[in-house]
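C-alpha cells incoming
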C-alpha cells in the first residue's frame, strides 16, 4: 500500500469518527438559525432537470419524495406542478415553519405506531404532507404506497457517513418499481481538507458503490458552485434501469444455459 493510500485511509477513518450529525445537532441548528443550506428560491437544478428526470408524463399527479426536507421551497414548486409531495423531516420547527411561512393552512395528527407527527396541507391546490419523524421510521407500510420520484437535495449528504448505506437501502425500499430520482452529492480532496460535514464527503466512487446495489447511477454533471471546492456532483437514479439490468442479467444467464445445454445435446447426437 502506498504511503499516500495509507494516509487517505487514515484520514477517512478519522473522518468517519468525526462525521456524525445526530438529531439533537440538527435541532440546535434550527433553533440557532444556522441553516445556510436553506434557499429562498427554488433550486435551479430542480428547475432545469425536472422535465426530463422527474416528471411522469403518464401521471401529472405522480408522487415525489423530498427526504430530509427542512422547509424547502422546492416542495411548493413541485406541488404547484400538480404532484403529490411528501417530505420527511426529524426536527419539528421547520415542519411548522414551512406551512406558516408559505401561508398554507395545515392540520397536524399523531403518527400511528411511530414517534412523530404528520402535517398535511389543507389547501386543495397544494398536495403536500410532511412526516415529522426520523427518515428511517418512514416506511412504505406507514405511507401506504411507494414513490414515483425522489428529489434528493442536501439529504444524502446530510446523513452521517456511517448511515450512508442504510440510507440508500431504505430509499430503494420506498421507491416504486418504476421510480426514479435526482441526487446531489459533494466531493473534495479529503487529503487537503477534512471538512467535518455536513455536507459529508460523498465522492463519485462512494455514490456508485452505495447506490449501485439498488439502482443504476448516472452522473449528469459535476461543477464548482463557488470558486473553491467542494465540487457538486449531480446524478440521476433511474431505479427502473436497475430492474432492467437485473432482468437482462437473468436473460443473459438463461441464454448462456440454453447454449450450453444445446451444445451438450449436439455432442450427444
Ligand atoms: C442540510 S438540511 C437540507 C434540507 C432540505 N433538503 C433543503 O434542501 O433545504 C438537512 C435536513 O435534514 C434533517 N434531518 C437530518 N437527519 C434526519 C433524519 N434522520 N430524518 C429526517 N430528517 C433529518 C435536518 O433537520 C435538516 O433539516
Amino acid at each position: 500500500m502506498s504511503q499516500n493510500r495509507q494516509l487517505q485511509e487514515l484520514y477517512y477513518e478519522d473522518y468517519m469518527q468525526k462525521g456524525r450529525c445526530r438529531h439533537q445537532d440538527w435541532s440546535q441548528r434550527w433553533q440557532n438559525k444556522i441553516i445556510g443550506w436553506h434557499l429562498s428560491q427554488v433550486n435551479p437544478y430542480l428547475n432545469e432537470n425536472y422535465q426530463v428526470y422527474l416528471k411522469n408524463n403518464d401521471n401529472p399527479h405522480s408522487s415525489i419524495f423530498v427526504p430530509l426536507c427542512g422547509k424547502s421551497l422546492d416542495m411548493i414548486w413541485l406541488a404547484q406542478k400538480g404532484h403529490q409531495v411528501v417530505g420527511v423531516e426529524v426536527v419539528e420547527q421547520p415542519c411548522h415553519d414551512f406551512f406558516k411561512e408559505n401561508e398554507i393552512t395545515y392540520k397536524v395528527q399523531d403518527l400511528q405506531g411511530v414517534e412523530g407527527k404528520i402535517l398535511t396541507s389543507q389547501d386543495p391546490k397544494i398536495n403536500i404532507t410532511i412526516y415529522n419523524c426520523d427518515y428511517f421510521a418512514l416506511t412504505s407500510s406507514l405511507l401506504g404506497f411507494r414513490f414515483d420520484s425522489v428529489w434528493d437535495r442536501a439529504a444524502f449528504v446530510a446523513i452521517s457517513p456511517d448511515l450512508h448505506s442504510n440510507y440508500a437501502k431504505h430509499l430503494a425500499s420506498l421507491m416504486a418499481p418504476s421510480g426514479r430520482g435526482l441526487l446531489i452529492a459533494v466531493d473534495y480532496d479529503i487529503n487537503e481538507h477534512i471538512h467535518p460535514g455536513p455536507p459529508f464527503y460523498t465522492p463519485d466512487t462512494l455514490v456508485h458503490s452505495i447506490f449501485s446495489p439498488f439502482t443504476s447511477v448516472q452522473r449528469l454533471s459535476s461543477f464548482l458552485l463557488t470558486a473553491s471546492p467542494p465540487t457538486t456532483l449531480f446524478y440521476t437514479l433511474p431505479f427502473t434501469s436497475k430492474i432492467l439490468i437485473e432482468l437482462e442479467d437473468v436473460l443473459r444467464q438463461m441464454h448462456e444455459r440454453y447454449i450450453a445445454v444445446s451444445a451438450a445435446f449436439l455432442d450427444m447426437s
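note: Residues 3-237 form a domain with the Rossmann fold fold (CATH 3.40.50.150).
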